Amino acid sequence: SAQRTDIATAVAQPNIALIKYWGKKDERLFLPRTDSLSMTLDIFPTTTRVRLAPGAGQDRVTFNGEPATGDAERRITAFLQLVRERSGRGERARVDTENTVPTGAGLASSASGFAALAVAAAAAYGLGLDARGLSRLARRGSGSASRSIFDGFAVWHAGHTGGTPEEADLSSYAEPVPAVDLDPALVVAVVSSAPKEVSSREAMRRTMDTSPLYEPWAVSSRADLTDMRAALGRGDLPAVGEIAERNALGMHATMLAARPAVRYLSPASLGVLDSVLQLRREGVPAYATMDAGPNVKVLCPRPDAERVAEALRAVAPVGSVHIAGPGRGARLVAGEC
Ligand code: PMV
């Protein structure tokens, strides 16, 4: 049942997809073309407070104390508008976000950002949503945010577009995936924290519209997901890594074949990929995945994480290296931020 609170603070962490989300079959509803699967991290939390502001003429949004502008502000205001429509409450809001992840560098700050915003806004406006409802709501801010609602491994269902928009909206949400005895680490090599030149939204659209490799990747991604679920179910980390790496390289191949091409990987990214190959030659089961930016995330057994981090630090242009484990999903926290 909906409860009025008027003010709420939530924390969320980014997730990294092992089976990628790339391409929307419905842009307005954020319905993806394919299912995806991710691990929520235990680093880079985003903390967001939403406070209703009766009488205010517009939403006011800050990031790390600075007023939000441009596209970021528009996306948050549009998201709050959706929450207002669902709640039947018209008050504008004050939204303050503290982000610890470098924004716009393919480190999924939009995932932690919209997961935290969804949880805080749903509570402040009294929507009374369960985890699945929160996942569906977060999806409308940024697709990947649907997965950061959950701890550890989560699968996001693409849903179906056959019926009404309401039915389609109900059918696409994330949920936890069972995984046994993995003890994984994800070593994040930050190659650049500069904002990306092509947004993931634009890059997805261009890839779907023009890349001859897109459909074959979407088809093979379905098989990758089946294999991934099986590998997680038997706790086979090298298989998880191998499937994740091929799925990510395939996604980047679709972009390279787009017209004009979208290339997020830099020479430094390829340097990291080389050192991952070298680690494997030395017997360390390390596997790479890359998103809409040049940074590389390397999956490996937790006991190997320090050795992997060391190897990645030795790649000349790598800025910083962070070791993450599986983390908690988005949640409300007490008090003010
Ligand atoms: O952050 P979004 O929702 O615009 O999507 C980005 C998608 C990738 O990070 C490249 C892949 C994924 O599944 O997270």
Automatic annotation (TrEMBL):
Cellular component terms per the entry's GO annotation: cytosol
GO terms, molecular function: ATP binding; diphosphomevalonate decarboxylase activity
PANTHER family: DIPHOSPHOMEVALONATE DECARBOXYLASE (PTHR10977)
Occurrences of domain Mvd1 C-terminal (ranges): 187-317
Domain Diphosphomevalonate decarboxylase-like N-terminal: 12-162
Single GO biological process annotation from the record: isopentenyl diphosphate biosynthetic process, mevalonate pathway
Keywords: ATP-binding, Lipid biosynthesis, Lipid metabolism, Lyase, Nucleotide-binding
UniProt-recorded name of the protein: diphosphomevalonate decarboxylase
Organism: Streptomyces antnestii
Family named by the database record: Belongs to the diphosphomevalonate decarboxylase family.
